[in-house]
Amino acid sequence: MKLVAGILRELWGLFFDDELLALGLLAWVALVGFGLPALGLSRIGGPVLFLGAALVLVASVVRAGRRLRK
């Protein structure tokens, strides 16, 4: 049972180790997925999704870097 719990804990940490990254990406995907089609801007969804995801990633890396300096 400890082996299964350890595996599940590692899988959870693999995807949800950084809350800002996970929640930020989920929120951005939802916003782009629902917002752009509602505004009639579906054609630019790919680049907007990429740029927003890149910004969320940069914010997460900056936040992690600040945590390591302290």
What's the short version?
This protein has 70 residues and is mostly helical. It contains 3 helices and no strands.
Describe this structure in words.
- With 70 residues, this protein is mainly alpha-helical.
- It has one domain.
- It has helices at 2-16, 19-39, 45-69.
- Helix 2 runs antiparallel to helix 3 (45-69).
- It is flat and about 50 Å long.
Percent of sequence in beta strands: under 5%
Radius of gyration: 16 Å
Distance between the termini: 37 Å
Structural class comes to mainly alpha
Brief descriptors of the model:
70 residues; mainly alpha
Outline the secondary-structure elements.
Elements: H1 2-16, H2 19-39, H3 45-69
